[in-house]
Amino acid sequence: MPGFKIPPLRPPTGILPVLLIVAGGGLVVLGLFYSSQRQQLGQLRQQLFSTQQQVSELEAKKNALAQELSELQKERGSLSERIDTMRTQLSSSNTELEEVRSSLQSIQVRYDQLNTERDRLKAQLATTTSERDEYRQQVQHLEEEKSEVQRALKRWRERLALLDRDYRKVTEELAQLKAAPKQTEPPPVNVVGVIPQPPAPKLPPSGIPSPSVTSSASGMVELPPIVVRKDQAATVSGIRGRVLEVNEVQNFVVVDRGSTDGVSVGMSFDFLRGSEVVGRATVIRVRPRLSACDIIGSATVGPILPGDTVVQSW
User: Fold this and answer.
1) Is 118 part of any domain?
2) Total count of domains within the chain
3) Could you give the CA distance from residue 291 to residue 240 in angstroms, rounded to a whole number?
4) How far apart are CA 281 and CA 266, in angstroms?
5) What is the DSSP string of 137-183?
6) What is the pLDDT of residues 255-265, one digit of tens each?
């Protein structure tokens, strides 16, 4: 060991043996002490080695922790920046939220106004719808009346065309009769229900028969026959004739009696087939030899046919 020196040997004296014994004992003690120190030193070396290993591990952990700390500090910096950014965004969002709340309040007010306006418009729409329905009904009624008037106008036009045709035909026949040479009058036609009358004597221009009398061989006085004009006879006994044409579509008939026979507008006729009354009509248009009559549906029980007898109704 450093610092340990062996004393120089001296010749033994009286106490030399004792000293040698003491020195030997000391050497043994020293050997034992040295051996124990060496053991302790080995243990300390082992402890030192293990401690160095632990220190190395701790240094590695320290470095890892330092690196991790550095990364965490960097992350903390980025998080701080993000937090600042988010705080800025939050501030702007709060501002926008206040603006949205203000807009929402104005929208709510506008919504209430629109609800009020909607209710008013609903009430107005209900009124307008009711008026529209009424107008539609009126328009429908007017359309029906218009259609009825158009049908009636068409019917009247057709009747007028037929009457004009018949009038032209009769006019042509009359013109032909006037242009033809005078011939002996044909015997009267015995129409059903009409009694043929003897030819009336010629009347003077005044229309009154001459007051001349004729004496028979027996000495009795024979008065001239009493002659009644055709229109007067018709007025007294009623006008009779027959149906010439039937128009079922327009609901009217044409008869062979006209103004020269005493027929006038508004006069009524009954239609006979044998002794049975099959219908009734009212005169609506009169020509000299023809008349157009509108069939009265409520008083007509059967179809009216050409050739049926026409009798003035009273």
Assistant:
1) no
2) 1
3) 12
4) 9
5) HHHHHHHHHHHHHHHHHHHHHHHHHHHHHHHHHHHHHHHHHHHSPP-
6) 999 999 999 99
For 273, phi then psi, to 5°, come to -125, 100
Residue 155 lies in a domain: no
**Cα separation values, 206 from 200, 210, 236, 286, Å:** 15, 10, 22, 28
DSSP letter (8 states) at residue 205: T
Q: Which domain holds residue 314?
A: 238-314
Residue 290 confidence (pLDDT) above 50: yes
Residue with structure tokens 């051996």? 35
Residue at 210: amino acid letter: S
Q: What's the pLDDT score for residue 13?
A: 53
Asked if residue 296 belongs to a domain, the reply is yes
- Find the helix or strand (DSSP H, E) in which 73 lies: helix 16-179
Contact 208, 214 (CB under 8 A): no
Render the burial of 67-77: b for 16+ CB within 10 Å, e for the rest. Answer: eeeeeeeeeee
Q: What is the pLDDT of residue 130?
A: 87
User: Is the whole model's pTM more than 0.70, yes or no?
Assistant: no
Convert the pLDDT of each residue in 29-38 to its tens digit. 888 888 888 8
Provide the 8-state DSSP code for 313: -
